[in-house]
Design a protein that fits this description.
By secondary structure, the chain is an alpha/beta fold. It has eleven helices and 14 strands. The strands form three sheets. The protein has a six-stranded mixed β-sheet, sandwiched between helices. Strands 2-1-4-5 form a four-stranded antiparallel β-sheet, with helices on one face. The chain has a four-stranded antiparallel β-sheet with strand order 12-13-11-14, covered by helices on one side. Strand 1 and strand 2 form a beta hairpin. It is elongated. Bound molecules: adenosine-5'-triphosphate (ATP) and magnesium ion.
Length: 312
């Protein structure tokens, strides 16, 4: 559905994205992650024909974004980062107007406007001025707008930003439902959201793709260079020295917690679990041990490791 190859964008000398290569297959829900300024919005704008690339190519459903923008636009529903709506228009009026702009006219206009109002729960506010809507409802109008021409591909730039927890849950559910019929590329800074909604994760860092896999596989990659945590009461230096000397331990961080307790974080070789050795070590020295566990690897850890050039 999406094919990006060697895509580059330079803004007045600043390279926002550099040589991006990735694909999104039909039916996928892909989470697009990256720190601020990584190039997510830039990529999404190029894919929705709102911005020309400086180099490389991008296509949607086989149509080139630069030379076949009409075909691309008719297949892409784009919800930008800052949804620009007309505050002086009423919701109903706005949706009819936007649908007409997208070439959805006559009877189909009424049908589609009704369908997206239903889908995005906008019936209650259809006669309200957009300027008088809460942020959450405005986001929903933005999403409804993106859906008007029933596009195959949805490109959603931080669709849940600024929403309260209830609204976030509703919008997430809506996206999940939409994912049954549409291919979706969505950016977000909420990593748990990606774990909940997306079938695959694309991580972009400093304008380049740093990872592309399922959240589970990415976590697996971090886990094999895994970590063990322990709380032990001992002298900082003695403890550190003893821990690093254990087989399979690459690095040991020891942070005092007060009362002589130390919080220990061990980085280990792939597939090495030194928990038993840690327990034995503590017993041997007569050091009290009150916690010992393997680190839970979630997408947040993966993201940090990858974007901070960790030692994965
Ligand atoms: N219109 C513009 N003019 C100049 N530079 C821009 C413009 N838009 C974006 N940039 C620069 O391009 C880079 C990528 O920006 P982009 O908005 O794509 O990042 P992002 O990943 O969407 O970040 P965020 O998470 O903050 O939304 C940044 O360095 C940004 O400052
Ligand atoms: Mg952005």
């Amino acid at each position: 559905m999406i094919k990006v190859s060697g895509l580059t964008k330079t803004y007045a000398g600043i390279t926002a994205i550099r040589n991006l290569d990735f694909t999104v297959a039909k039916g996928e829900i892909v989470g697009f992650l990256g720190p601020n300024g990584a190039g997510k919005s830039t990529t999404m704008r190029i894919l929705s024909c709102f911005l020309p690339a400086t180099g490389g190519t991008a296509s949607v459903a086989g149509f080139d974004v630069a030379t076949q923008s009409r075909e691309v636009r008719s297949r892409v529903g784009y919800m930008p980062e800052n949804v620009a709506l007309y505050p002086e228009m009423r919701v109903q009026e706005y949706l009819e107007y936007r649908a007409a702009l997208k070439g959805v006219r006559g009877r189909r206009n009424r049908q589609r406007v009704n369908a997206v109002k239903e889908l995005c729960s906008l019936r209650d506010v259809e006669t309200k001025l957009i300027g008088a809507l809460s942020k959450g409802y405005r986001q929903r109008v933005g999403l409804a707008d993106a859906l008007l021409h029933d596009p195959d591909l949805l490109i959603l730039d931080e669709p849940t930003i600024g929403l309260d927890p209830n609204q976030i849950r509703q919008v997430r559910q809506l996206i999940r439902d939409l994912g049954k019929r549409h291919t979706i590329l969505l950016s977000t800074h909420i990593l748990s959201e990606v774990e909940m909604i997306c079938s695959r994760v694309l991580i972009i860092n400093r304008g380049q793709i740093a990872a592309s896999d399922t959240a589970e596989n990415l976590a697996g990659r971090v886990r094999t260079a895994g970590g063990v945590t322990a709380e032990i009461r001992a002298g900082t230096e003695d403890l550190k020295k003893a821990l690093v000397a254990l087989p399979g331990v690459r690095k040991a961080d020891v942070a005092p917690q007060g009362d002589g307790w130390q919080e220990c974080t061990l980085r280990t070789d792939a597939d090495h679990d030194p928990r038993e050795e840690v327990a034995r070590l503590a017993a041997k020295h007569g050091w009290p041990l009150r916690a010992l566990g393997r680190e839970q690897v979630n997408l947040e850890r993966v993201f940090t490791e990858i974007t901070q050039a960790g030692e994965l």
